[in-house]
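Standup notes, structure subgroup. Blocker cleared on the pyridoxal-5'-phosphate input:
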Amino acid sequence: MSISENVKKILSDLPHGVNLEVAAKSRNYDEIEESILAGAKIIGENYVQEAEKVIPLIKEKVEWHFIGSVQENKINKMIRLFDMIETIGSVEIAKILSKKCETAGKIMKILIEVNSGLEPQKSGVMPEIVEDTVKEISKLPNLKIYGLMTMGPAFEAENLRPYFKLTKVLFDHIKSLNFENVKMDILSMGMSDSYLVAIEEGANLVRIGTKIFGPRNYSR
Ligand SMILES: *Cc1c(COP(=O)(O)O)cnc(C)c1O
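Run returned:
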């Protein structure tokens, strides 16, 4: 099936209220454009270097989300390119981002990335400090928290279920606290192999690459 057919099929199959984010890393302009013409409204990029080549070429109005690891020396470019950063994993990086957004005169939408697998080598906030982290970051003037994102360990779909469940519990808990300047609207979980399980566990934004474009030439 073509990129266009894949996008249309996924869009028509997603339950009401669940949004598709096209995970576009390693894909070129033509591929991304085809996904947009088929109805994709949110595009996720992992690398600033790739994003800055393609974003200026796309004329359609779509939302650009950053889903890679946030590097301090790329933040100014990220502020210019992206509408949302899904991978904020510490108060420290949030403070730096907020400062730079202030200089740029922008309020950046963010998600807090949860390290739901408790993996020390991976990014994201450990579950037991997510509440405090959200509270701290919510005080920063130039960021606005819209929800949570998680990857989970590199397991097959069914084995990811507990990590999605945990992230949903945190999401609901933080939502119930009604922190000022926090909107718990978006729960970004699930990729090509796992999005159906993620949706069952409460995801309302799924990040899909391979199932739309086919296998990548590199895997990162
Ligand atoms: C690559 C990537 C995806 C999509 O992965 P696929 O298996 O290709 O669907 C989703 N989220 C993040 C953060 C990614 O880096």
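Discussed briefly. The chain has one domain: 3-213.
Next: hand off to the docking folks.
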